[in-house]
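Following the same procedure, backbone shapes were mapped to integers, yielding the entry below.
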Amino acid sequence: PRPGRRALVSGGGGVTVSGGEPLTQAEFTSELLRRCKQEGIPTAMESNLSRPFEWLKLALPYLDRLYCDIKLIDDAKHIQYTGVSNWQTLTNIRLLRGCKIPLVVRTPMIPGISDTQENVAGIAAWLKENANVEAYELLNYNPLAQQKSEELGRCYTLGERKRKTKAEMEELRSAAARMGVPTIIGGE
């Protein structure tokens, strides 16, 4: 892989539970993951970790990898853009610090919102202090979001946005990596 990139999956396949939010149905999710592990199937979960840690604990024994997002480190901005606080997500990431499950934290680069060096470096600094991450992954903006929203009959409020160039993404990756957190560019 190119510098700043590496594969997070070894290529053997498996099951990734995502959503919506899989922890909304924590008992079902945990049972599904348990059965996968029983059959020798590698498991992963994508969660926003916005549910109580007790719900997450049900799934932990059956996970090989966990993915979650920190969109914005500033709680007021997080509330402004997502409608909810990032408190529970950050709390859960702290509580996961002692777990042996590889954790990949992602930040989608929403132009003009989450794609600033201040936000990315702030998240990386917080992760260095509070988490044990396998990688911090920066995801470039997906311009298909507008089309998908329209197809679902939803109002798309972000307007026209452009993806970051490779050079801009590398600048953001470097800003995070300077904080001492393994940082990669994903989703290209």
Remarks:
- DSSP finds seven helices and six strands in the chain.
- The longest strand covers residues 103-108.
- Residues 1-9 have pLDDT under 50 and may be disordered.
